[in-house]
Amino acid sequence: xxxxxxxxxxxxxxxxxxxxxxxxxxxxxxxxxxxxxxxxxxxxxxxxxxxxxxxxxxxxxxxxxxxxxxxxxxxxxxxxxxxxxxxxxxxxxxxxxxxxxxxxxxxxxxxxxxxxxxxxxxxxxxxxxxxxxxxxxxxxxxxxxxxxxxxxxxxxxxxxxxxxxxxxxxxxxxxxxxxxxxxxxxxxxxxxxxxxxxxxxxxxxxxxxxxxxxxxxxxxxxxxxxxxxxxxxxxxxxxxxxxxxxxxxxxxxxxxxxxxxxxxxxxxxxxxxxxxxxxxxxxxxxxxxxxxxxxxxxxxxxxxxxxxxxxxxxxxxxxxxxxxxxxxxxxxxxxxxxxxxxxxxxxxxxxxxxxxxxxxxxxxxxxxxxxxxxxxxxxxxxxxxxxxxxxxxxxxxxxxxxxxxxxxxxxxxxxxxxxxxxxxxxxxxxxxxxxxxxxxxxxxxxxxxxxxxxxxx
Amino acid sequence: xxxxxxxxxxxxxxxxxxxxxxxxxxxxxxxxxxxxxxxxxxxxxxxxxxxxxxxxxxxxxxxxxx
Lengths: 457, 66
Prior knowledge:
Chain A is an alpha/beta fold. Helix content of chain A is 37%, strand content 15%. The two termini of chain A are 22 Å apart. The longest helix of chain B has 23 residues, at 24-46.
C-alpha cells in the first residue's frame, strides 16, 4: 500500500508537489483501499476508476494536484447524476459540472468515489439510504451520522484524506462528530453551490469539507471558496456559552468533554468564557426545519406523491407527504423568527467571538435503533441533534465540529460558531484546540484504520 | 374528542383534500412526525411575531443590515 495514502490531505498534496509521491500510484492505492475497507462500511457507493484516471491525467497544477477525494451523492458529476441517497428525487437531475466538482477539478484533485448519504438528506444518522446505510468506522454497528454519512465514514477509515459534504441542517457537522472528524459548515453562500438541485432555492444548504483536522479542512474549504483561507493565531478569544438544553441536556461524558475543551481553548488563547442568552433557540430550531422542508416543496404535486417510487423508504414517502400538511402560517412565522435570530446573533457576536456547545448531545447511536439517552429521557437522534445544528443554517453563520473526546470508544465533538464570514476564525480556534490537547483527538484512528482486521460486513 | 383522534382527522382530511393517498405504513410515519412537530408548531402559531421588523432583502451571507 502506498504510504502517502496515510498522510494528511495537505501532506499528500505536498508530497506530490515535491515529487516524493506519485499521484498515479496514490490514486491506485486509494482505489485499492476503498476496495479493501469499504465492504464493511458502505461509505463509498460508486467508484469510476477510468474517470478518476482521466481526471488525474488532465489535472492542472493546483493546491490539491493529484489528491484523491470523495464527494457526497448530493452533487452531480459530468458522468453521474446525484441520487441524493434515494430511489427517487423530486427534483430533476442530470449529470453535470457542479460547483464543488469544478472547484476540485480546477484545484487538481481527483474524485475517486461518491459518498453514501441519508435518504433525501432527511436525517442526522445515515441509517437510511437507497444503498443501505453507511457504517461508523469506530463501531460498524453504529450510525456514522448524516446526512453526509459516506464522506465522513470514508475519511474516518482513511480511504481518502478529504471529502465534500453538504449541510442543510447540520449534515456535515453531525457525521463529523460521530466519526471523529473536523467538519466545516461555511457561511451561507461562501462555498461552491452551483449545480445542486436546490441551488437558488435553498436558504440553508452549503457545501463544505470533512477532514481529519482543521488544517486539512482549511485547505479543502479554500478550494470550495475559491480563495485561500489564511491561518491565524487566535488570542483572547471570548467564548460564549448558553445555559440551555443544547448544552445541558446532553450525555454526561459529552458534557464533560465539551466543557473541558472550552476550558482548554480559553486557556490556550488567553481568552474568557462568557454566558450568553439565546432565548429563541428552541423556536429557531423548529423554524429551520419548517423552512428547509418547505423549500423543497416546489417539485411536489399530489400526483407525484401518489406515484412515488416504491423503492423509496416508507419513512421517506411518509415524510414527503407530511410536508404538504405543514401550515403556511408557521412557515411565515419561521421567517420572522429567522430575522429575530439573526438580529440576536449580531448583538451576541458584538460581545463574543465564538459560541460553543456540543455538536451532538450523545455519541453515535446504534444503527438498529438510532435513539439517544439524555438526562431528559430517550429521544430519537434526529430530535436531539437538530437542537445544536439548526441555528447556523437558519441564520447563515459558519460553524465547525471538532473532535474533543471519547465516550465508550466513540468520538465526542464540540461545535464552534462564529459571526458571518469568519470561517477562518473557526479553523484557527479548532487548530488552537488541537494544539492544546496535543492533537489527541484529531490523530485518533478507528480500529479499521489502525491496521486492524477489516470489520465484518 | 381525544387528541389522537383529532390528529388522525387532521392527517386524513388534509391528505384527502389534496388527493394524496397513503398506505398504513406511510400513515404511521406521518402520525409519528405529526406527534413530534405539531405541539411546537401550535406554540409557534400562538406567538405574536408582529413586532419583528422585516429584514428587507436578507443576505444570509452577512450580518443583518439592521
